[in-house]
């Protein structure tokens, strides 16, 4: 089963790729306009549909990740505490 968001994303990427032909870009534009409302695909799940344990795990991982800024760690901790 094809994910419409991935298909639209591929066409959007093609439009911005300097290595693709104008013919290819025109085709992607036509597909986006005709099948994907110009590329406006609704994304992902809403917060109500997400698994709270997965969200908490991601936030906890953020607080311990050395590559994350202190501000992001504080925001993640606040969100985790509010759960």
Share of helical residues: 55-70%
Radius of gyration: 19 Å
- Measured between the Cα atoms of the first and last residue, the distance is 34 Å
State the low-pLDDT regions, or none: none
Could you characterize what this model shows?
By secondary structure, this protein is mainly α. The chain is 64% helix and 0% strand. It is elongated, with a radius of gyration of 19 Å.
What attributes does this structure have?
mainly alpha
Structure at a glance:
The protein is mainly α and 83 residues long.
Question: What does the secondary structure layout of this molecule look like, with pairings?
Answer:
Layout lengths: L3 H13 L5 H14 L16 H13 L5 H13 L1
Helix pairs in contact: 1-2, 3-4
């Amino acid at each position: 089963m094809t994910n419409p968001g991935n298909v639209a994303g591929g066409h959007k990427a093609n439009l911005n790729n300097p290595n693709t032909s104008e013919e290819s870009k025109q085709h992607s534009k036509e597909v986006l306009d005709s099948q994907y409302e110009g590329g406006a695909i609704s994304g992902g799940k809403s917060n109500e549909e997400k698994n709270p344990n997965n969200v908490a795990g991601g936030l906890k991982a953020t607080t311990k990740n050395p590559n994350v800024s202190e501000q992001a760690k504080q925001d993640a901790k606040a969100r985790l505490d509010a759960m």
